[in-house]
Amino acid sequence: MTPSVAAASSLAEELIQKIEQKTAVIGVVGLGYVGLPLAVEKAKAGYNVIGFDVQSSKVDMVNEGINYIGDVVDDDLREIVQQQKLRATSDYSFINEVDAIAICVPTPLDTYQQPDTSYVESSAREVAKYLHPGMLVVLESTTYPGTTEELLKPILEESGLACGKDFFLAYSPERVDPGNKHYNTKNTPKVVGGVTPNCTKVAASMYRAVLEGDVHEVSSPAVAELEKIYENTFRHINIALANEMAILCNKMGIDVWEMIDAAKTKPYGFMAFYPGPGLGGHCIPIDPFYLTWKAREYNYHTRLIELAGEINNSMPEFVAERAANLLNKEGKPLKGSTVYLLGVAYKKDINDIRESPVLNIIDILEEKGANIVYSDPHIPSFKRRGKEYRTMELTQESLQKSDLVMVTTDHTAFDYSLISRFAPAVLDTRNALKTEAKPKLYEIL
Ligand SMILES: NC(=O)c1ccc[n+]([C@@H]2O[C@H](COP(=O)([O-])OP(=O)(O)OC[C@H]3O[C@@H](n4cnc5c(N)ncnc54)[C@H](O)[C@@H]3O)[C@@H](O)[C@H]2O)c1
Fold it and tell me: Which segments constitute the UDP-glucose/GDP-mannose dehydrogenase C-terminal domain (predicted)?
């Protein structure tokens, strides 16, 4: 072993020991849907955790023990804040105090549908200012293969410290599935790929100390970056196939949901995906296009991803057209009709409207002159194109006052029996009334 390899190994062993003895201080940059649950799990595992966010409102809420993320248990957050295991700040100098840091900032697409890595870059620049020997940095944001080594590493090395020698760098994708009752941050297996074997070893030891799920080590950050995008691309493409089937089944007069239920009886080689009004959230509509962009560097065109995107993006138009056709059966035009949307969150039982296809449906229907009202127990209000929308209580009266009710998100809290009894006409994009008596005018996606 050369002296520099020996020095790096002893720095790694030192950090692993701190991690195992729970004396390591852990930082989390970005306290959103991914970062806050991660910070809470680390604090619950016994570490002192410092969270950072650029939004002072989130920092204040964390410091007051107030939870704002659905997957975090209110009491857990309150207790760890009271026990001083977790505190939040908007001052990057906190990095002076930490031994390891996880970066969980947004990775959206820009207006040209290209990766916007500006949040990763700006947080990395701040981390570089306070990076110190023996520290571990893990990127958790979803991104294209190459980001950790091509973008993050050079920025961090501007500090004068060398990766793998003076500090450790790894990529570990986050798999949190908001609203999932069974799998959460703690019990979901984690993939880790470090820039050097020591980087992988240190990062894996941190996750093993905190999580119950398996920690699967891979040979490089790029493998971990790509496997995450592959997971989400798999969903993106299979959802597009289900949506294509829904469009075709509608033409053929076949119930797509019944057809999928039948296909699902095959015990191997088939996994059920369902159609819907379009894709939403910060992951499935976005992540595959990080790969599409990167593939161009290799002169490769990811045709399947783009085609799936086209089909998924066409769903709000398809749903709006179905709404117009359904109203037409009652002799009503869209213009002037009240369309009552049940659910604006992009999926069941969560409070997230990012990229929600329901917002596109609203735009299309309003452009055609419909009046839009909505109920969503998880979204009290939201703004769209400068207009503010407020949720209504789902009642017999609110249903009867509308011309068409559209089930856009199948929240558990909705009273489907009430909907089936009092809605004048229903377009059910989620098969939510599956077990209910159907209203006279009822259509399923
Ligand atoms: N939400 C999910 O279900 C999910 C699942 C898996 C992976 N991911 C990935 O995790 C990453 C984070 O997603 P999210 O849903 O938690 O996003 P989010 O918007 O909920 O949270 C990100 C947080 O980072 C903060 N932030 C922005 N710029 C910052 C900066 N320069 N320094 C510090 N903080 C900054 C924001 O204020 C915000 O609170 C993304 O790459 C996303 O693709 C998300």
Answer: 340-435
